[in-house]
Design a protein that fits this description.
CATH topology: Neuraminidase
CATH superfamily: TolB, C-terminal domain
Number of helices: 3
Oligomer: single chain
Bound molecules: calcium ion
Number of strands: 23
Strand content: 35-45%
Organism: Xaviernesmea oryzae
Distance between the termini: 41 Å
Largest sheet: 4 strands, antiparallel
Order of helices and strands: HEEEEEHEEEEEHEEEEEEEEEEEEE
CATH class: Mainly Beta
InterPro entries: 6-blade_b-propeller_TolB-like (IPR011042), Glc/Sorbosone_DH (IPR012938), Quinoprot_gluc/sorb_DH_b-prop (IPR011041)
CATH architecture: 6 Propeller
Protein name: Glucose/arabinose dehydrogenase, beta-propeller fold
Keywords: Signal
Strand order of the largest sheet: 1-23-22-21
Length: 408
């Protein structure tokens, strides 16, 4: 009896501790303990949401490696170990290995930085070491509205820690334009054959968002293009009348996380509706459902469309989050410094204020782990040292920092 009393007291204590925090740090239990927003929805298969935490969770510490930065959106490591960053307002900087930001890079084109727009992602060309070529996405002001565009340029560093862009060339425009300030995406990822994946959004409002299902529209898609912005000849819709040939997959909402896995395959995490963020491995020509088939509910609380979470014509997400993490930035961990994370995806969480570690078993999620950082995480990268670098932002646009996460 005494033992039972102790046991009950222990359980009550755990329950209180868990209730006091959104995250439970107990192996085998899901990290997320809050009620889902979509109370009546159920996953299509075991492990599609709220996967358990792994038995081995490394102790992670973090330090600020750079601060006092403008509102950053993306970061890439240069071959020399420095970091190239984009800031939403439309500037780029090179940050030294000591964490000092150089002067603004000259020649960055005007961007539309209101709302969710701005200078967005940056990617180094696969041959950057010899060509100096970079690719970047941005919200572009246009005569008939605005939209996400992709430009290429040659980055020419100077010896003051800055540099300039030469031969800036807009190679791709998401069409149609729309007069709004939401859901521009975007991320840029080069595949193993130098193909460039471009993720975008569906512009959020009721009128444009349905175009995520329309192959004649570039809203709510993943594109696959060459370095001149042209559709690749083996894209899935190149021979279909009325379809945009650059489309790789459709039915997406707002994609701000993308990376390749160890096999060179594209994975994405997208901002879903309230309770519907999702991890996908976009395959050519496949339909990922939005806004007709989705988990979650509208931010107003009403169902999304007919409230359908599955049908035969659309792909189920590999994984979904309800409540949302608000994903931005993503990396595949293939380094040795944090062995427990080998083969996992690291996803930045704006609302979840940390890094979400998604451990895979084949193409399914086995475990989910959270690293709380008390800051909105806009981008995540693995450094040449095997540490994880997380870019923070402040809502409303205060200063950003870059954090370095290490084991121990
Ligand atoms: Ca979906």
């Amino acid at each position: 009896m005494k033992n039972l009393t102790l046991l009950l007291a222990g359980s009550a204590l755990s329950a209180v501790l868990i209730a006091g925090s959104a995250l439970a740090q107990t192996a085998g239990q899901p990290a997320e303990t809050r009620r889902p927003n979509a109370q009546n929805q159920t996953p299509a298969f075991t492990g599609q949401t709220r996967a358990p935490q792994p038995a081995e969770m490394p102790k992670i510490s973090h330090e600020v490696v750079a601060d006092g930065l403008p509102h950053l959106w993306a970061m890439e490591f240069l071959p020399d170990g420095r970091m190239l960053v984009t800031a939403k307002e439309g500037v780029m900087h090179i940050i030294s290995e000591e964490g000092e930001a150089g002067p603004e890079i000259d020649g960055v084109p005007e961007v539309l930085s209101g709302g969710q727009g701005g200078l967005l992602d940056v990617a180094l060309a696969p041959d950057f070491a010899t060509s100096g070529m970079i690719f970047f996405s941005f919200s572009e002001d246009r005569e008939d509205g605005n939209g996400t565009s992709v430009a290429s340029a040659k980055l020419v560093p100077d010896d003051q820690g800055g540099g300039r862009l030469e031969n800036v060339n807009v190679i791709f425009r998401q069409m149609p334009s729309y007069d709004g300030n939401k859901h521009f995406g975007s991320r840029l990822v080069f595949g193993p054959s130098n193909e460039l994946y471009v993720t975008v959004g569906e512009r959020s409002d009721p009128e444009p968002r349905v175009q995520a299902q329309d192959l004649g529209s570039g809203l709510g898609k993943v594109f696959r293009i060459d370095m001149n912005g042209k559709a690749l000849p083996d894209n899935p819709f190149v021979d279909q009348d009325g379809a945009q040939p650059e489309i790789w997959s459709l039915g997406h909402r707002n994609l701000q996380s993308a990376t390749l896995d160890g096999q060179g395959r594209l994975w994405t995490v997208e901002h879903g509706p309230r309770g519907g963020d999702e991890l996908n491995r976009p395959e050519p020509g496949k339909n990922y459902g939005w806004p007709e088939v989705t988990y979650g509910i509208e931010y107003s609380g009403s169902p999304v469309g007919e409230g359908i979470t599955r049908n035969a014509e659309t792909e189920q997400p590999v994984y979904y989050w309800d409540p949302v993490i608000a994903p931005s930035g993503m990396a595949y961990y293939d380094a040795d410094a944090i062995p427990e994370w080998k083969g996992a995806f690291l996803v930045g969480g704006l609302v979840s204020q940390g890094v979400v570690v998604v451990h895979m078993d084949g193409d399914r999620v086995a475990y989910e782990e959270r690293v709380p950082l008390d800051a909105r995480i806009r981008d995540v990268k693995v450094g040449p040292d095997g540490a994880v670098y997380a870019v923070t932002e402040q809502r409303g646009g205060g200063e950003s920092t870059i954090l370095r996460l290490t084991k121990g």
